[in-house]
Design a protein that fits this description.
The protein is an all-beta fold. The protein has a domain at 31-153 and 170-216 and 256-275. It is 1% helix and 52% strand. The protein is built from 1 helix and 21 strands. The strands form 3 sheets. The chain has a 16-stranded antiparallel β-sheet that branches. It has a 3-stranded antiparallel β-sheet with strand order 7-3-21, with no helix packed on it. Strand 14 and strand 15 form a beta hairpin. It is globular and about 65 Å long. It starts with 11 loop residues before the first strand and ends with a strand. The model is unreliable at 1-25 (pLDDT under 50).
C-alpha cells in the first residue's frame, strides 16, 4: 500500500511600491493554495459531467455521538457503504453518500434507564475537500452536491420517537471562513492494487481511495418531545426564534464522528488523492 500525506504552507503575494510612486498601503493578495487533487480516470475512456463515473466503497464506524448523546452509536452490525458520482477527472472535492444500517444507539428511555435500541437505516452525504475539511448534509438526487439537512429518527419507545437533525454544515466550521488553510478533520491515502491484467489496467495496477474521519463539534438539532426532554443549560440552546431553520429545536454543537472508508473504487478505473508538489 502506498500512503500519501500532504504538507503545504500558505503563500501570499506581496506588492512592492514603485521607486518613484507616492507612499501608499498596498493590499496583500492571497494566492490560491492547492493542497492536492482527487483524481479519477478510466483507461480508454473519459469522465465528465456528461459521462460520470460511480465511486463506491465500504468502511467501519467507530463512534457517532450527537445532541448530547441523543444519538450515540458505537455498534453497527453491517459495514458502512458509500457511493457517489464523479464528474471530473481532477477536483478539489469528492462526494460520498454513506449508508448506516443495522446500527444500535444508546438512548435514555427515562432519566434512570438507558437502553440500546436499533436505529432505522439512514444516509449522510459527505463532500470531502482537499484541505481535509468536509461538508456534511443530504445529497441532491444527482448525488453530486449537498442541498438540505439530513434527518435521523431514533426509536425511543413504542409509538414515540426522538428526532435528531444533522443540518448541512462545514466541519470544522472555520473551514468555511478560511478555506485556504489546511485542517486535520479527514485524511486521504491512495491504496494500490497490483498484479492486475495490463490489458485492462495499464501497468497492471489500480488506484483506490481510503478516507479516515475524525470530526469534532458537529452541529445537531434535537426535537423536544415527551421522550426527548430539554431542561435548559449550557450544553444545548433552544431556538425560539420564528423563521430560523432550527426553530423549535434544541441546538447542540459538540457532536463527534470517527469512521473510515476503505477501497473506494471506480469499476474499471482509478481513484486517488494526489498531494500538491512541494
Amino acid at each position: 500500500m502506498r500512503r500519501v500525506r500532504i504538507a503545504a504552507g500558505l503563500a501570499s503575494v506581496v506588492c512592492a511600491l514603485g521607486a518613484f510612486a507616492a507612499p501608499a498601503l498596498a493590499k496583500k493578495e492571497k494566492k490560491e493554495v492547492v493542497f492536492g487533487k482527487f483524481v479519477a480516470s478510466i483507461p480508454g475512456g473519459t469522465i465528465s459531467s456528461g459521462s460520470p463515473a460511480t465511486a463506491a466503497g465500504h468502511g467501519e464506524l467507530t463512534s457517532l455521538d450527537l445532541a448530547k448523546g441523543a444519538l450515540s452509536i458505537t455498534n453497527c452490525e453491517k459495514p458502512l457503504k458509500s457511493t457517489g458520482k464523479v464528474e471530473s477527472e481532477s477536483s478539489n472535492t469528492f462526494l460520498q453518500i454513506i449508508t448506516f444500517a443495522r446500527c444500535f444507539s444508546k438512548v435514555g428511555v427515562n432519566h434512570e434507564v438507558v437502553e440500546e435500541r436499533k436505529v432505522k437505516p439512514f444516509k449522510l452525504a459527505m463532500e470531502f475537500h482537499s484541505n481535509h475539511s468536509v461538508v456534511a448534509g443530504e445529497s441532491a438526487p444527482s448525488e453530486v452536491k449537498i442541498v438540505t439537512p439530513s434527518t435521523v429518527t431514533i426509536p425511543v419507545a413504542k409509538g414515540a420517537a426522538c428526532v435528531v437533525v444533522i443540518p448541512a454544515q462545514t466541519i470544522p466550521t472555520k473551514a468555511e471562513r478560511k478555506p485556504e488553510l489546511e485542517y486535520e478533520a479527514a485524511s486521504y491515502e491512495t491504496e494500490v492494487e497490483t498484479g492486475l491484467n495490463p490489458k485492462k489496467f495499464p501497468g497492471g495496477f489500480q488506484d483506490k481511495l481510503n478516507i479516515e474521519m475524525e470530526f469534532n463539534k458537529i452541529e445537531a438539532w434535537l426535537k423536544p418531545s415527551a421522550h426527548c426532554t430539554y431542561s435548559g443549560g449550557t450544553e444545548g440552546r433552544f431556538d425560539n426564534e420564528e423563521g430560523t431553520p432550527a426553530y423549535g429545536y434544541v441546538v447542540y454543537t459538540n457532536g463527534t464522528l470517527e469512521a473510515e472508508l476503505e477501497e473506494i473504487t471506480i469499476k474499471g478505473g482509478n481513484l486517488a488523492f494526489e498531494p500538491a508538489k512541494e
